[in-house]
Protein 1
Amino acid sequence: MRSFDRQKVPLPKLSSLNFNEGPLIVEIGAGVGLHPISYSQQFPDHQVLAIERTRSKFERFQRRLENHPQIKNCIALHEDAISVITHLIGNNQVDKYFILYPNPYPKKNDQNKRFYAMPFMEEILRTLKSDGEIILATNDLQYKQECIEFFQRVWKLELKEQSLATQGRTHFEKKYLSRNESCYNLIFTRKSTFGSA
Ligand SMILES: C[S@@+](CC[C@H](N)C(=O)[O-])C[C@H]1O[C@@H](n2cnc3c(N)ncnc32)[C@H](O)[C@@H]1O
């Protein structure tokens, strides 16, 4: 795989980000914002940065967030997550990444558009704390299997947990569950070095 060239990544509109104290949670492709809003409410001491690049979805997210003025720990950004993470997030800063129902790009020639196969994954690993987690959900069995294979073989991550999501955390998860589709939830961590020489 070619290595990631951060110089070629466009700068985000924002030039810096200030976070509250507490664990930093980054959601890539937050859609209309159901998950970051409920997560922020559930964990008020965490700082949630939720990034969505599609304007129409972001505007629905923003309106939803404005209806919860008590939430102070959620930053909603209309940006490309690749630009924001590459240029505005420091090394070992992120406790959890959420990538929930990314577009699976099922066409054979589109593998390089799938998150787990992108050289950009280097930036996710650079910014993830050593005990951090990447949580990825998909309803696509082939995507799930290929994701596990890539994360383990290429990115040297460990599959800590896999389960079927049942809660309807996001707009897409609700839609898939209503069609009785399986929603696979995967939690990855760095490989444990405990006991190694
Ligand atoms: C299939 S939707 C899922 C949305 C939401 N996570 C859900 O489950 O309802 C995938 C979303 O990821 C967003 N997305 C894809 N790549 C992105 C990127 N590089 N930066 C920000 N958003 C991105 C798309 O705009 C789209 O809204």
Note: Helices lie at 34-42, 55-66, 81-88, 121-127, 141-153, 171-178.
Protein 2
Amino acid sequence: MADGGPVAVRDVGISLPAGITAVVGPNGSGKTTIARVLAGLETGAEGEFRVRGEVLGSEAERLRRTALVLQNADHQLQMRSVGEEVAYARRLALRTPGFWSRMPVLTPEEEANVGAALTRLGLIEFRDRHPQSLSGGQKQRLVIACALMKDPALLVLDEPTSGLDGGNLERLAKLLREEAEAGRAVLVVTHDEDLLAYCDFVLDAREVRGLKIGVKTEVKAEETA
Ligand SMILES: Nc1ncnc2c1ncn2[C@@H]1O[C@H](COP(=O)(O)OP(=O)(O)OP(=O)(O)O)[C@@H](O)[C@H]1O
Ligand SMILES: [Mg+2]
């Protein structure tokens, strides 16, 4: 950055430890982009991305080893019942990677894991309900339950507190804390002071300069130099 030129790829990297890392920064500073890069959703992102020391080198690897919870839970719910939603997420997670593979059928043990996740997230009583009939907080917990079915190295949540009341926020924070204590890396895009209070580390999106995504970043790198 010193001479204002584009940042060398080797100088760019995001390394996340176990624990809860908050991504902060003003509107448009690239918070969601960082979340999407780490989740493997931005094509052509260059840099070294590590989670708990493990290098997630390719987009495919990041897609496989991370799970993303979007701001709007409605966008991630597609099945006809709460139970099916989580079971489907587990089946996807168990699928052998590759161009073509058969969707596995859940064993009774795996069915029990699905039930345990629903119980843990306070959704077991809604098992047969349509996902869209749940409240905002319940929908979000359902999306998180689905995300955890992947057992991701990194769980990413983009602005998870918008629309959550105090009780649901505390519940979310406790859940993220449990995950962090179990050794998972959690990245949460937020400017919610109440949630920030629960986080272990803070990453300012403005400091993640030079994160190279397509052509636009080079322009950005020159502008910010
Ligand atoms: N490293 C980058 N390279 C190229 N484009 C980027 C980069 N970071 C962000 N952008 C672009 O800048 C715009 C704003 O980024 P983004 O949506 O990630 O910001 P945000 O901090 O999440 O904003 P908000 O607070 O409004 O949610 C987007 O169009 C995005 O594509
Ligand atoms: Mg955003």
Note: The chain has one domain: 9-224.
Protein 3
Amino acid sequence: MLSGPFLSKNWMCATDDYTRCDWVMIGLPYDGTCSNKPGARFASQAMRTASWGLEEYSPIADRDFNDVKFFDAGDLEFSLGNRESSLNLIENNVREILKDGKKSFGIGGEHLVTYPEIKAYKEKYPNLAVVHFDAHCDLREDYLGEKLSHACVMRRVVELVGKENLYQIGIRSGEIEEYRWMKENNTLISSMEKASEIFGKIKDQPVFITLDVDVLDTSVMPATGTQEAGGMTVNELISWLLLLRKNNVVGMDLVELSPDYDASGASTATAAKLAREMLIYFG
Ligand SMILES: [Mn+2]
């Protein structure tokens, strides 16, 4: 018998008991509609490896990661050329997680993975609110003729949850029509004061947080599919996330890390830390 010790194949601090976990982390390595720099399919495995370099204690939350009951389900295996079957696989697996009375934390992959997640969530939580962190509006009606594209994902999500239930943070890039749509429908939250007020009002509503890592500045997060300068620092993003700590967060995802563009490993380490913090704040 080999006596090791061996490094874990799973996320640091993940429980190996699915039946007793509250959250299921599920890798969604799909990047089929990526229009700029492909490679987000490699993010979940890269973050899993990077997690071994993290500490277990979060000084910000004064909470240990071992106190969060989460299970690392590994990565779904997609027929990558087939968008419909890939999206169906995500929807069906998230539906199973919800049926088991658990919450899902999807690790993308490109942002389109959020659409099938929300489809499953909407069935269980008819009054779901979605909080969207991103550099981009993702509100196009279609992109190059495709309605199911990462560039349209929030427009599709709105068709499911209603525009009154979408809250967008950190947006700094989009077409004039998308900006007009945001203004008309009042979905963009531009100050933390406004955010605390709104999040206070939706305390009883179930919330899904979708975090596109390109909401961070390109200097902090260069390894992403569609880089957009002028974004947040990590500490600013954490301050925004903490505003949701008293809300009923029932699901999350973190998308668009593309680790092959990460020469130093700093982007992947940052994404892994953010995933740890999100589970510690909301788990
Ligand atoms: Mn984006």
Note: The chain has a mean pLDDT of 97.
